[in-house]
Amino acid sequence: MSADEPADSRVNPVVRAVLRLFAAPRVRMLEDYPKVRRLQRFLAGTPRRYRFLDRAILADDGSREIPVRVFQPREREHGDVLLFFHGGGWVTGDIESYTPACAALADLTGRVVLAVDYRLAPEHPFPAGLDDCVRVAGVLLREPGLVGLDDASAITLIGDSAGGNLAAAVSLRLRARGCPMPGRQVLLYPATWFDHDPGTSPFESVRLYGTGLRLTALEVEDYMALYQPDPQARGNPLIAPLLAADLSGQPATLVVSAELDLLRDEGEAYAHALRASGNQVRVERITGALHGFLTLPRFVRPVTLACRVIDDFLGAASETSGR
């Protein structure tokens, strides 16, 4: 359904009890993030089942490489490319644990997916991970021929959760620097705000879904503390894009939210703010979906529906741009 349509956002107590069965085990992310990283890799299984090609792009100073994994779809139906930033609260998730999700995204959209293995907090706090994403995006947008493209408009930035936050922040930084811009961006249940305390957050979804489901408000606050340890610095628009003073000149944007997600309202609010600044924006809410659904098996409804929405958005955007 469209997020612009009214909906009863409260979860029936019986439904909530069932959803809790699928919730992630409660952890204190400040201490347990290494365990979560290992568990994610284990659950992802061996990547040898998927067709991918590992590449790297040199960091700005040439001192290290930023890994990029290239996923070819079973049938390539479209010539454009998706540049993907994974979720995980800027702290967990990596190129291995997201291999199944990226392979599914490539197959279900018929597009090549390039996944960036950016540096993670707390070992590398803000802006390290963002810098990696900006570097990879900047290189490919300046030299689209590296991925077999004629122009930068055929590159779409896409990310889920913290990756959606990074995609939005990359677009903001690219515009501020006067760099070539991607043709589109797809933000899947993105984090766009700095405060997830149910007592002070301006968003009702934090109070409705901030406890007992797949992602909790406490976990988001832990992620934020690891990403940017200084609470006073979390108002940076590159951490909380909703605070950006100028949202003009952004790529055509699709925001996909999950109905039963504490980040739902802030993601949709960012979409509305982009639209109010003159950008082309589409908002879609996946009913009955929890946060993080992109990492579920490819055949489940939220994944297949979201990929259809993405495919439709990218196709419509291509027609509008004349490509």
Protein architecture, described:
The chain has about 325 residues and is α/β, with parallel strands linked by helices. The chain has a single domain, classed as Alpha/Beta hydrolase fold, catalytic domain (Rossmann fold, 3-Layer(aba) Sandwich), CATH 3.40.50.1820. Helix content is about 35%, strand content about 15%. It is built from nine helices and eight strands. The protein has helices at about 15-20, 30-45, 100-110, 130-140, 160-175, 205-210, 215-225, 265-275, 300-320; strands at about 50-60, 65-70, 80-85, 110-115, 155-160, 185-190, 250-260, 280-290. A hairpin with a 6-residue loop joins strand 1 and strand 2. The two termini are about 30 Å apart.
Tag the structure with descriptive keywords.
GDXG_lipolytic_enzyme; single chain; AB_hydrolase_fold; globular; 37% helix; 323 residues; 8-stranded mixed β-sheet; AB_hydrolase_3; Acetyl esterase/lipase; alpha/beta; Rossmann fold; hydrolase
Helix-strand blueprint:
Layout: H1 13-21, H2 29-44, E1 52-58, E2 65-71, E3 81-85, H3 99-109, E4 112-116, H4 128-142, E5 155-160, H5 162-177, E6 184-188, H6 204-209, H7 217-227, E7 252-260, H8 264-276, E8 281-290, H9 301-321
Parallel strand pairs: 3-4, 3-5, 5-6, 6-7, 7-8
Antiparallel strand pairs: 1-2, 2-4
Helix pairs in contact: 4-5
Give the termini distance in whole angstroms: 28 Å
If classified by CATH, what would the architecture be?
3-Layer(aba) Sandwich
Order of helices and strands: HHEEEHEHEHEHHEHEH
Shape: globular
Name the strands of the widest sheet in spatial order.
1-2-4-3-5-6-7-8
Radius of gyration from CA coordinates = 18 Å
Low-confidence blocks of residues: 4-9
CATH-defined fold name: Rossmann fold
Kindly state the number of beta strands. Answer: 8
Helix content: 25-40%
Strand content: 15-25%
**What's the CATH class, please?**
Alpha Beta
What integer is the average pLDDT? 91
Largest sheet: 8 strands, mixed
Structural class: alpha/beta
Taken together, the total number of domains comes to 1
What is the H level of CATH, i.e. the homologous superfamily? Alpha/Beta hydrolase fold, catalytic domain
